[in-house]
């Protein structure tokens, strides 16, 4: 039939076998040739790029200033809808330009002015003291390569932008609530203060609160405050509910804090301060919509689900001579988040 040995896979050359057809080792092609940028060869282009970077940092500074103009020039207590819209625009644009100016400026600086040579470095044996010296030299080389020492325009505008840029965030976080201390221990509630509906300010009689009903309540006089109305409301707002007195389980000393099954609890969640606004009258549960913390009204608003760490503070109430619901005192514990004021 003939000799087919030359056509077999092992002899035809279609399959490589060990030791057969040793190929040349792969050659390292090396780094591609460096292509200088316009700013590397043209002093005018370099100067122009430097001014562009500085301009971007100045835009960041202007953005921060715009933020503070909107933040401090418009007061929420007496602002109109148009003024609030203007404030939102100023805050948004100011923050955007403050962050964008720094980010784009640094990227433009790196792409046009910082050295762009590609280098490779062999790994070496770790020697702590030698590595420390090498690291210090590397940091020094990086600072030198950025050119920040010999480019005062960029350096000064960058420092100005970086100093001002975090200030809007500080202002916004500061406005989230009162500072730590005793500020959350005291509210507008005091002995004899009537419970009134929010926002109308209408006083509430015990007979107005039917079984299963719930009212959003503020202290009488809050709407008449000339200033700091929102801050006081954030601390003093209350949820008023009526349950069957047999469903309540007051702890010793709290037996007279309710009126015929009518109880009042702080509306401010003890997790991060969101308003607890959902009342489920069948289960007598209060739900915070932010993180689903759930409080059981029958057990003095004990936390039964969610991240809240403490029950909602209870406001002791009673009825005055005219039949209106009034506070017996202020809350006997701090309201709101429990970050700093509860042991």
Automatic annotation (TrEMBL):
**What residue spans carry the Polar residues bias annotation?**
7-17
* Membrane topology recorded in Swiss-Prot or TrEMBL: Multi-pass membrane protein
Give the GO cellular component terms, alphabetically: plasma membrane
Q: Cellular location of this protein?
A: Cell membrane
Q: Which CDD domains does UniProt cross-reference here?
A: Rieske
Keyword check for Chloroplast, yes or no: no
The UniProt annotation puts the region (Disordered) at: 1-45
Cleavable signal peptide: none
Q: Which residues cross the membrane?
A: 53-74, 86-110
Q: Which UniProt keywords apply?
A: 2Fe-2S, Cell membrane, Disulfide bond, Electron transport, Iron, Iron-sulfur, Membrane, Metal-binding, Oxidoreductase, Respiratory chain, Transmembrane, Transmembrane helix, Transport
Drop me one GO molecular function for this one.
2 iron, 2 sulfur cluster binding
Q: Which Pfam families match?
A: QcrA_N, Rieske
Show where the Rieske domain sits. 257-326
Q: Which domain of life is it from?
A: Bacteria
Give the protein's function: Iron-sulfur subunit of the cytochrome bc1 complex, an essential component of the respiratory electron transport chain required for ATP synthesis. The bc1 complex catalyzes the oxidation of menaquinol and the reduction of cytochrome c in the respiratory chain. The bc1 complex operates through a Q-cycle mechanism that couples electron transfer to generation of the proton gradient that drives ATP synthesis.
Family statement drawn from the similarity comment of this UniProt entry: Belongs to the Rieske iron-sulfur protein family.
Q: What is this protein called?
A: Cytochrome bc1 complex Rieske iron-sulfur subunit
């Amino acid at each position: 039939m003939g000799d087919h040995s030359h056509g077999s896979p092992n002899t035809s050359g279609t399959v490589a076998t060990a030791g057969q057809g040793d190929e040349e080792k792969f050659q390292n092609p090396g780094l591609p040739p460096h292509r200088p940028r316009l700013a590397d060869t043209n002093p005018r282009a370099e100067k122009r790029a430097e001014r562009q970077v500085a301009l971007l940092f100045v835009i960041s500074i202007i953005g921060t200033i715009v933020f503070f103009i909107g933040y401090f020039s418009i007061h929420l207590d007496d602002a109109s809808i148009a003024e609030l819209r203007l404030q939102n625009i100023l805050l948004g644009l100011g923050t955007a330009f403050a962050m964008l100016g720094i980010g784009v400026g640094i990227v433009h600086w790196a792409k046009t002015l910082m050295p762009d040579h590609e280098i490779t470095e062999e790994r070496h044996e770790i020697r702590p003291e030698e590595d420390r010296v090498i690291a210090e030299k590397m940091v020094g080389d990086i600072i030198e390569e950025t050119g920040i020492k010999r480019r005062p325009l960029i350096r000064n505008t960058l420092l100005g932008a970086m100093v001002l840029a975090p200030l809007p965030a500080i202002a916004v976080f500061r406005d989230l609530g009162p500072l730590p201390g005793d500020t959350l221990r005291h509210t507008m509630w005091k002995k004899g203060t009537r419970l009134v509906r929010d926002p109308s300010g209408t006083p509430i009689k015990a007979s107005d609160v039917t079984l299963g009903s719930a009212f959003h309540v503020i202290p009488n006089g809050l709407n008449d405050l000339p200033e700091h109305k929102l801050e006081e409301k954030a601390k003093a707002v209350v949820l008023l509910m009526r349950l069957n007195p047999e469903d309540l389980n007051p702890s010793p000393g709290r037996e007279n804090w309710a009126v015929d099954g009518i109880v009042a609890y702080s509306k401010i969640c003890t997790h991060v301060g969101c308003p607890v606004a959902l009342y489920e009258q069948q289960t007598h549960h209060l739900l915070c919509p932010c993180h689903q913390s759930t409080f059981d009204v029958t057990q003095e608003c004990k936390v039964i689900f969610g991240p809240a760490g403490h029950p909602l503070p209870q406001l002791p109430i009673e009825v005055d001579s005219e039949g209106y619901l009034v506070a017996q005192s202020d809350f006997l514990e701090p309201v709101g988040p429990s970050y700093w004021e509860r042991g």
